Amino acid sequence: MVTTRRRSTAPAETPVFHSRAEMVYEQLKRDVADFKLVPGDRFTENELSERLGVSRTPVRQALFRLQQEGYVEVLFRNGWRVLPFDFERFEQLYDLRMVLETTAVQRLCTDETKIDRALLEQIAAIWLVPAAERSTDIRQVAQWDEEFHCSLVAAAGNAEMTRVHRDVTERIRIIRRLDFTKQARIDATYEEHAKILRAIQRKRSDPAVMLLRAHIQTSQSEVRKITLHQVHLARAA
Fold it and tell me: Is 172 left (phi over 0), alpha (psi -120 to 50) or beta?
């Protein structure tokens, strides 16, 4: 199987940080999403300060922010700990994602006035390809999958819906990436995305929504099967 490199549907941007605390915050979120930090891991502010090359003040500010978002907790006189996954919260976020994406797909099939056709063409160029041209890069496919769903919502032309969906996407990213640790799931994602896109292109609203709903439900089902052992395996992969 040949791995191809295709242009991302999202513009490449160099992140601009307005403070060291923001830089630390973004780095720690990436560490959690990339399984460099997994549920149960413990660390101190001094350890992070040394690793990131900053003082304890921005580290503490970033950690308090992550604490408010439910990623970490402070341990009395014993540093910090990455919190276990809150699966009930993930279930609720997946339900919200389902509502937003199915609504967007219905609009893509029926409303011609606000649809961003160029955006749809960009994701079609990634997913409607022969099997031999599919990527086998787990990280790349995970990123493209996220962009696929965000682009479907964005292409529907509702800025507020797009904003809420991107917030949901960011909050489920940590658990969602575990869906791409097996090649079978990558292959299935290509097939399912292609069917959804073809249904949208043909303006077949009901089949498109049905396919999308089944696709999200499958991913949600995989999330339910995730164990801490699988998280550690993902970090080691």
Answer: alpha
Judge contact between 176 and 85, C-beta under 8 A. no
Domain with CATH 1.10.10.10 in the chain: 20-82
- Reported as a single tens digit per residue, the pLDDT across 54-84 is 999 999 999 999 998 888 999 988 899 998 8
Look up residue 136 and give its two tokens.
């086998």
Measure the CA–CA gap between 172 and 94, rounded to whole angstroms: 8
Tokens at residue 209, please?
């929504």
105 φ, ψ (degrees, to nearest 5): -65, -40
Per DSSP, the three-state class of 41 is coil
Which residues, in sequence order, are CB contacts of 24 under 8 Å at separation 6+?
A: 48, 52, 54, 58, 59, 61, 62
Span(s) in the chain for CATH 1.20.120.530? 87-236
CA distance 215 to 222: 11
Given this structure, which CATH class describes domain 20-82? mainly alpha
By DSSP bridging, strand 72-74 and strand 42-43 are unpaired
Q: Cα–Cα distance between 172 and 97 in angstroms, integer?
A: 10
Say if residues 45 and 85 touch (Cβ distance below 8 Å).
Answer: no
Would you say the pTM of this structure is higher than 0.85? no
The CATH number given to 87-236 is 1.20.120.530
Percent pLDDT > 70 in the chain is: 87
